[in-house]
């Protein structure tokens, strides 16, 4: 999921990492220092249309390296969330570094996530603009619930329950959709989908160029 340009990053003094508040946290997550930039898949590629496989081995060096690479790839692309199939890996995993509507920054990863549906009285649908790193340059209004709870595991197999509101709830739903083989385009009308693809055609080249510059600035 991409972060709209008119939505500022959250205050780094109010941060939750893996759902828990921390006293301080760097602007660049530590994973970015260990990772390598991976190519981000683009809508139309088959891997984005398939349900991802569950992770069955936890605590491995390969899983840790994948998470590091995903954090760096997300940061280079100005993202708020990134699913494994967006870097060409068919596994149920996503990472996030996303603000909510109250200025709190949420950072972490979820393995084998399952989205809980909020009780009817505790949710409402909100139309807000969102973009996708696999639909570079496009942004469209998508209805999402204003609250989301996702259950899963960390990379070592410890259970996690992550709850989000506002824009962070939108991010959790967006990334969980990816792992089920869906992009936000699937939630649009035919007319809006055509408009999103038109935006991508117009802006994709510039977006990819900015990613290359940002990666080069990091020496990656």
Report on this model:
The longest helix has 28 residues. This protein has a single domain, classed as Peptide deformylase (Peptide Deformylase). The radius of gyration is 16 Å and the shape is globular. Strand 4 and strand 5 form a beta hairpin. The model has no long low-confidence stretch (mean pLDDT 93). The chain has 4 helices and 9 strands. The strands form 2 sheets. Strands 1, 2, 3, 4, 5, 8 and 9 form a 7-stranded mixed sheet that branches. The protein is α+β, with helices and mostly antiparallel strands.
Sum this structure up briefly.
This protein has 220 residues and is of the alpha+beta class.
What are its keywords?
220 residues, alpha+beta, Peptide Deformylase, 9 strands
Blueprint (SSEs and pairs):
Layout: E1 15-17, E2 20-22, H1 30-34, H2 61-76, E3 81-83, E4 93-99, E5 105-116, E6 125-130, E7 140-145, E8 147-153, E9 159-165, H3 166-179, H4 190-217
Parallel strand pairs: 1-5
Antiparallel strand pairs: 1-2, 3-4, 4-5, 5-8, 6-7, 8-9
Strand content: 15-25%
CATH class: Alpha Beta
How many strand segments?
9
Total of domains:
1
Q: Rg from C-alpha positions?
A: 16 Å
Structural class: alpha+beta
Q: What order do the SSEs take from the amino end to the carboxyl end, as H and E?
A: EEHHEEEEEEEHH
């Amino acid at each position: 999921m991409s972060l709209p340009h008119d939505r500022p990053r959250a205050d780094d003094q109010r941060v939750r990492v893996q759902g828990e508040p921390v006293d301080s946290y760097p602007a660049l997550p530590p994973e970015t220092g260990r990772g390598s930039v991976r190519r981000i898949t683009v809508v139309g590629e088959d891997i984005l249309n398939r349900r991802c496989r569950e992770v069955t081995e936890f605590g491995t060096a390969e899983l840790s390296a994948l998470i590091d690479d995903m954090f760096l790839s997300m940061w280079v692309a100005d993202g708020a969330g990134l699913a494994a199939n967006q870097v060409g890996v068919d596994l149920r995993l996503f990472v996030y570094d996303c603000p909510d509507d109250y200025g709190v920054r949420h950072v972490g990863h979820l393995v084998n996530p399952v989205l809980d549906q909020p009780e009817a009285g505790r949710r409402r649908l909100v139309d807000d603009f969102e973009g996708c790193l696999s639909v570079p340059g496009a942004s469209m209004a998508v209805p999402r619930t204003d609250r989301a709870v996702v259950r899963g595991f960390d990379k070592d197999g410890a259970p996690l329950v992550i709850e989000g509101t506002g824009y962070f709830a939108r991010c959790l739903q967006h990334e969980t959709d990816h792992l089920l083989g869906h992009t936000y385009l699937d939630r649009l009308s035919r007319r809006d989908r055509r408009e999103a693809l038109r935006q991508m055609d117009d802006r994709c080249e510039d977006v990819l160029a900015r990613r290359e510059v940002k990666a080069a600035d990091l020496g990656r």
